[in-house]
Design goal:
- Strands 3, 4, 6, 9, 12, 13, 14 and 15 form an 8-stranded mixed β-sheet that branches.
- By secondary structure, the protein is mainly beta.
- A hairpin with a 2-residue loop joins strand 27 and strand 28 (about 360-370).
- The protein has helices at about 1-15, 70, 175-185; strands at about 25, 30, 35-40, 45-55, 60-65, 75-80, 85-90, 95-105, 105-120, 120-130, 135-145, 155-160, 195-200, 205-210, 215, 220-225, 230, 235-240, 240-250, 260-265, 270-275, 285-290, 295-310, 315-330, 335-345, 350, 355-360, 360-370, 375-385.
- The termini are far apart.
- The radius of gyration is 30 Å and the shape is elongated.
- This is DUF4139 domain-containing protein.
Length: about 375
Amino acid sequence: MIKEFFFAIIVSLLMLFCIPSFAWASLAQELPPNAKKLTVYQGINLAWMEELFTLHLQAGENRLLLNQEAMEKGRVVIYPLQKGLQVKRLEARENHHQLLLEAENEGDYQLLAGFFVRGLSWEESYLGVLNEEEKTLYLIPTVHIDQKSDREFEQVTLQWLLGKPAIEVPLPRALAREKAMTFAAEEVPAHTPMEITVQQVSEYQLFALSGKVDLPARSTNTFFKEVRAFPFQEKYRFSDEELFRVITFKNTADPLPPGNLLTWDKKGNWCQSIAFPGARKNQEVELVFEGAQIQAKRREVAYRRLEVRFNDYREVVGFIAQKEVVFELENPTSTTATVEIEEHLPLEVATLPEDWTFKDGAAWKTVILSPGEKKEITLTYQFEEEV
């Protein structure tokens, strides 16, 4: 039922995803690449394109032409993948670039070309169904590749990097020879279902789409991942006189990038749109929703100054004050409810009751309410008050 529900949502959101390349010329004949890989960065409107070529070269010096479009506003890496081939230099001409190669013998050689492409970015979003009876959140992660460039990318291997690079324009990194040779040998049948895999790259995660895709110019391309189920725990949080519903779960599989989460109940009724914080593998996730079934009120019942503070000149500079706050909680539901009380405190707090915890500038206490139960919780604390 969950899959059918997601299918109905996906049909209404699905968009066509249908991507250019270096144009090498030898003896005035254009040579298409054997394989192409596009890595889209996050938050810098930039992607790195790698293209693999097989070139038949004569022994000695060979000259090839590179079209001007591929060279505009970016760096280029030319990397020979076999011994016996050297890149001598790249010369800029009026409307093209000329590449000089030195081949030890006549034959076929593989060459990797990499360059930046501007106008590409990606973001994650999620469709979610909250099954209250099962206490399970069903999530379908969705990645959106925004292609604002005028290029047409055709039959590329697509991947995207989670995490904004620390530098504005990341330095190009050529593939290692072994990896590049594997890249060259990849042949994916057209009927193969596309899957999204992830691997760790330094402090980043690299997501890759199996198979090859087309990305037309000025398009948004959406890819849906498999539905994932997360058993969750539920509690309520009363903070700054507002009551929230909080669900928590552990992500035991691949990382979940930050994004927007649209939620429904299992009957298909719209719930809320909230920010999804993201989660690495084995990380706890906390989702905060507005609205709750329990009731909570806060009252300040007492305030007094206990002590006067003086400076060296006997001038009054502050006080040690005491405040008493009462929280009225009620659980009108038929199930047990867990309530977290969060009371933000002044900067300088002298004392807190033993059954309260200080964390992130606030006093915290967890209260368990049985069905139909009412409770009053009192917080008394002392703090330093400046004049």
